[in-house]
Amino acid sequence: MEQGEKRLTANDKGLIRDSWERLGKNKLPHGTVMFARLFELEPELLKLFHYNAAFSSVQECLSSPEFIDHISKVMLVIDAAVSHLDDLHCLVEYLVNLGRKHQAVGVKTQSFNAVGESLLYMLECSLGPAYSMELREAWVTLYAIVVETMSSGWTENGESKSD
């Protein structure tokens, strides 16, 4: 899974694990911060979440049971990546399929940049002074590996990653 220049060092893995653990067991509030930031960065993504009806506001979306379930699932994916830092290869099939599912609902690979920025924003807000440039770079590397793998689902479907 770690292709190109994207490699996690033992130190990166330790930083990621420690920072994720500091967020505590209940990751939902952190995920809510992440998605609130995502909708600030790319408000048009809100229209992709229209479970039974279109949401009239970001807050309505963030507080809906369906979206809370989505936030929980996203946090579980991050948790799986953190839990498998020493064997990310075991997540390849899952992440490729997850990429395909996101493509099917209209997500563009460019939106992954905003998701990454939202993840970093959440970590910075949640960790406060414990958030450092070294920690940021470790998470950037992990996120790049995950996104590269998810994006391969687009490529395998005969579409370019820049769609």
Question: How are the elements arranged and paired?
Answer:
Blueprint: H1 10-22, H2 28-41, H3 58-62, H4 65-83, H5 92-104, H6 111-127, H7 133-156
Individual helix count = 7
What structural class do the secondary elements suggest? mainly alpha
Indicate the percent of residues in helices.
55-70%
The major pleated sheet works out as: none
How far apart the termini lie comes to 22 Å
Number of strands: 0
Query: Can you tell me the residue ranges where pLDDT is under 50 for at least 5 consecutive residues?
Result: 1-5
The value of Rg in angstroms is 16 Å
The best one-word shape is: globular
- Average residue-wise pLDDT: 89
Report on this model:
It is built from seven helices and no strands. By secondary structure, the chain is mainly alpha-helical. Helix 1 (10-22) crosses helix 7 (133-156), helix 2 (28-41) packs across helix 4 and helix 2 crosses helix 6. The longest helix has 24 residues, at 133-156. The protein is globular. The chain starts with 9 loop residues before the first helix and ends in a 7-residue tail after the last helix.
